[in-house]
Design goal:
262 residues; Rossmann fold; four-stranded antiparallel sheet; binds adenosine-5'-diphosphate; binds magnesium ion
């Protein structure tokens, strides 16, 4: 489904460096792949490179193929077609992922019009249904509100609804619960899993990015461990967490264990 080979991101400017260095992996159809590693290891830049959304000053080379189609180097207008129907993303910060000036319903309706060819009325109606499906109370009212009126958890629900509205082949979730209160984190994770199932066949593949091993062991089938921009270990999630081979993975697992059992 998604084939990444030798993906390298260079960050320019005075302190030129290589935050992502020769990363390669594949995500199969419907697979749930976790990308784990400490803060600053290059997880977000990897995700942004896949989406063609790198910040200014950063450049990617290598290969990112979605269903055989090379995405690196695609023109912005072609990439816009891919984002939405091919590969979508949920960010850590749902507030900045949404446009503060545009009503929630219109933001959810927008990809439905653009990628599913719905007219304005049908898209607006479907947006309210989607808000309802992701557990937003009083969805008609929420659709007319601006993002700032919703709680952090509700905003992330909106982002999940938008990301899956067009039944993408791949969903990238970059620390989707990290910014939320502990009490709502589990709800949002559960919602993400249910929402992926609700898309139906073909089930979207998931690239789940986190530094939280407890979360990843719940959600993912297979894991990639990234350290200083390189993948140092990969394997089935349960095996890798039970018997990590690389010293860095061992440290991650030991730290997570210590956190969970103070
Ligand atoms: N826009 C940018 N320009 C230059 N360097 C960046 C930029 N964004 C992140 N970096 C650097 O790249 C490295 C990886 O960042 P990031 O991918 O955000 O890590 P993670 O998501 O794993 O916490 C960090 O050292 C960070 O300082
Ligand atoms: Mg990050």
């Amino acid at each position: 489904m998604l084939d990444v080979a030798d993906l390298t991101v260079r960050a320019g400017g005075a302190g030129e460096h290589t935050p992502v260095d020769g990363v390669g992996f594949t995500v199969g159809a419907g697979e749930r792949l976790g990308l784990i590693g400490e803060s600053g290891s290059g997880k977000s830049l990897t995700a942004l490179a896949l989406m063609g959304m790198l910040p200014p000053g950063c450049t990617a080379r290598g290969s990112v193929r979605l269903q055989g189609r090379e995405l690196l180097g695609l023109a912005e207008k072609d990439l816009r077609g891919v984002r939405g129907s091919g590969m979508t993303m949920v960010f850590q910060d749902a507030l900045s992922a949404l446009n503060p000036l545009v009503r929630v319903g219109r933001q959810v309706a927008e990809p439905l019009r653009r990628h599913r060819g719905m007219d304005a009325r049908r898209a607006a109606r479907t947006a309210v249904e989607l808000l309802d499906q992701v557990g937003i109370p009083r969805p008609e009212q929420a659709a007319r509100a601006h993002p700032a009126r919703l709680s952090g958890g509700q905003r992330q629900r909106v982002c999940i609804a938008m990301a899956l509205a067009c039944r993408p082949r791949v969903l990238i979730a970059d620390e989707p619960t990290t910014a939320l209160d502990a009490t709502v984190q589990a709800d949002i994770l559960g919602l993400l899993e249910r929402s992926l199932d609700a898309v139906g066949e073909p089930r979207p593949a998931l690239l789940f990015i986190t530094h939280d091993l407890a979360v990843v062991s719940r959600v993912c089938d297979r894991l990639l461990v990234v350290h200083q921009g390189r993948i140092v270990e990969q394997g089935p999630a349960q095996d890798l967490l039970r018997a990590p081979e690389h010293s860095y993975t061992r440290t991650l697992v030991a730290d997570a264990w210590a956190l969970a059992h103070p």
